[in-house]
Amino acid sequence: MSFFEYEPEDIAPVEPGPEPVSPPWFGPPAGVIPTPLLARATIFKTDTALFTLEHLDVYPTGIEFTLYLRLRTPLDWHGIPWEPDGRKVSADNTEFLRLGFEFPDGSKWTNLPGQEDPFGQEPDGPFVMNRGGGGGGSRWEMKQWIWPLPTAGDLVIHSAWPALGIDETSTAIDTKLFTKAAAKAEQLPW
User: Fold this and answer.
1) What CATH number does the domain containing 99 carry?
2) Which pick of 65, 92, 125, 133 has the fewest CB atoms within 10 Å?
3) Is residue 18, in this structure, part of any structural domain at all?
4) Phi and psi of 34, rounded to 5°?
5) How many domains does the chain divide into?
6) What's the rounded Cα separation, in Å, for the pair 127 and 124?
């Protein structure tokens, strides 16, 4: 007798429908296995906070990566520090962790209000979307999707967090890594 032996039930088969097609700025393309890059970009590091971008999965259309945030002292509010999620985001709100990406061509994305609604039509410039994760208190690990794949040059990550005394800072990643990795992504033959 097999471990997986069972008595089949009389259940009508379910006919699969067409798989929904998401726009490319919403996330990784279906049927593609990315090329992983074990790289880390330290966005900022102080005596009280560490914010990094790492675990990059490179696709031909964009990059999925993880943002890690560690704090010495837990925050006394809930939510992801770099996502507006109902908090008033303005120049005088010091609790909001400002985050932005500048592409080699000069186009940019920030987490400040005023970005295009990605659900209506293709954004005019780069777009970043939360892909899940978790955290709270003094640690967060959140997957993000950045679209499109940056062209040759430097992808510059900008950040500032006034509540923690972190002035605007930036760090650059050479996109040659992404171009080479995107070419190695494996795709199902459609």
Assistant:
1) 2.60.40
2) 92
3) no
4) -75, 170
5) 1
6) 9
